[in-house]
Amino acid sequence: MEIDINPRSSSKIADSLTKSIGLLSTFTIWVLIVIFFGYIAYKGIAGAFSYGFKSLFFSLDFDITNNKVSFWAPFGITIFLALLTVLISIPIALRCSIWINFYCPTKYRKLISTILLILANVPSVVLAFYIRRYISPVAHKALFLNTSSNLVVAAIALVCMILPLIIVLFNSVLENKKSWIISAELLGLDKNYAIHKIVIPKIKHTIVIALSLVVGRVISESIMLSMLLSSENYQQSYGNGFSGFINSQSNSVSALIGENYFSDGSSEDVQNLMFLFGGLIFLVSLTFNTFCMEWVKMDREKVNNTSKISFFKKAKDKINWWILCCLFSSCKEWENNECSTGDFIHKAQTKNLKTFFGLIRRGLEFLCLGLFVLYAFSLPITVLIGGIKSFVSDASFVPSQNDTLFRAINNTFLIVLLSILFAAPIAFFASCYVSEYLSNKRFKKYTLALINAAAATPSIIFGIFGLFVFIQTLGWTASGSSGKSLLAGMLTMVLFILPYLTHSFYTYLSGISDNYRESSYILGISKCRTFWKILLPIAFNNLVFSVLLTTGKIIGETAPLYLTAGLNSAPKTLFMYQGQTLTTRIYSQLYESNLAKSEKIINETTFYCLLFISVIVIIAKYGLGILSYEFWKKKFQSFNFLVH
């Protein structure tokens, strides 16, 4: 007896099933994020009442033992680091990106893009040890600093961390602007002049986005800064003048949270205070990002008014003209009406007055490029040399011991695999529902805002949330509420990557042209088949790329894992026992008394950490063709052809 299944009926069932799973996934994300933010607010309010609003917001004294806990003291350090990082990183990144897109041979650009992605995913704990060993002594002598660990060195470390990511951001915009340069050159304009006068003003929105990205990363960074800065004596930092301030070792807000929450004997009031500080820096970061995005949106909608010139534009033009008058006599003669406009233009063309600023720009480009190339090559070379030295000596790759490299690799891949398996399906179906099925615009707006807010939350906040909920409250460890466990670390990482994955998936799915959807619906194809048969194959490579980058993100995280999974490993890999990962293995060497052993462990672990991240990035850049939907579809079609 044959059962005739109506194709339309099966299509409706599939459509209803996809929509229901997507709705359930979206609801799950809403519940998790609301609980997360609600709990932070609850603990933060408790901390505020414990220490008092006067001590928190109307004082500049900081001494936890005496209940003096001014938020402005560590926040001032954070603002200074953010400002210094912005002033250094964005100009260097912009000039490096200009060279890559307009002067570098095309055949090398994909290789440079791969190197940039690898550097952008270097764990902060690896970068911190690199800065401590090589950059800090050089900066100490070259910049005439009093100490080798200070705010200037911390800002340099933040620049090294954020610079590759900003260059990637600028590259994604500038690679589509080459036609403007060609048009300008056809009109007789100099290439360098066209880049700085035509292209750069057109990407000001991207520069503002880069600004928000830099500030957000600086505010949220905790592990690297806690390894470079270790003081809470803010009164001494602010009281010794500017020189004493930049040479101080005072912690930023995020680094302060990690140190005080993880320190032995920290009271419940101190822990609540750290939740409050975490919530405050989250609000600051969210407010600044919102302001930047709204400014970009308003500027795009604003009608250009050529009759009005801003005050800053006038001031800039006057300064430029004053410099030219000081350097070239023809400019002064024209200003005093001693020569005609025609003669001035002739002299300008023959004497090449424009090349003055052009030479300065080119010189700055080569200087910035040289600094970045020095960092880009020195980091992997030093890691490689250190790894080779550790392999020549007695290896610690022994599975039978507790704290071994083998066990750290095993724990890392276990957390990565399970976190992706839990988070990716929820993020995929939620992004599918929001992109294709959710018709309520207000609810869609709130959902995206909630996801973006969670994605911008510092990782240290997820760490202290996971520590309290999964360990101190639920006791999901073999030692109860006083222990650590791989399960708690894995669940914390699921919460951490879920908003990021959902945002990435939604961006790629919603970015597909509506022409595909409209054409499919006109032909009578259901929404479900349109998504699975048309939209998903188009976005498949980008979705896999997001998963691979998320894998690198998990490998590089330290703060959420050292608070929940611990710094040591149990004799066996069990979910209810603690287990160090690659990054927490590196971080644990701060507490190792045997310096020779510590040096060797750092060298071998950083080598493997960078190796795994490099492999992931190379697969993402060069191996997606093999992983693509169309590749395997053709393979199966050819196999069926051979069989039949």
Automatic annotation (TrEMBL):
Protein name in UniProt: Phosphate transport system permease protein PstC
Major location category of this protein: membrane
InterPro entries: MetI-like, MetI-like_sf, Phosphate_Transport_Permease
Coiled-coil segments: none
Membrane topology field: Multi-pass membrane protein
Transmembrane helix as UniProt keyword: yes
Protein family: Belongs to the binding-protein-dependent transport system permease family. CysTW subfamily.
Gene transcribed to yield this protein: pstC
Species per Swiss-Prot/TrEMBL record: Candidatus Mycoplasma haematohominis
Residue intervals passing through the bilayer: 21-42, 71-90, 111-131, 151-174, 207-229, 273-292, 366-392, 412-434, 446-474, 486-509, 605-627
PROSITE patterns: ABC_TM1
Biological classification of the source: Bacteria, Bacillati, Mycoplasmatota, Mollicutes, Mycoplasmataceae
Transport among keywords: yes
Organism domain of life: Bacteria
Signal peptide feature range: none
UniProt-annotated location(s): Cell membrane
SUPFAM superfamilies reported for this sequence: MetI-like
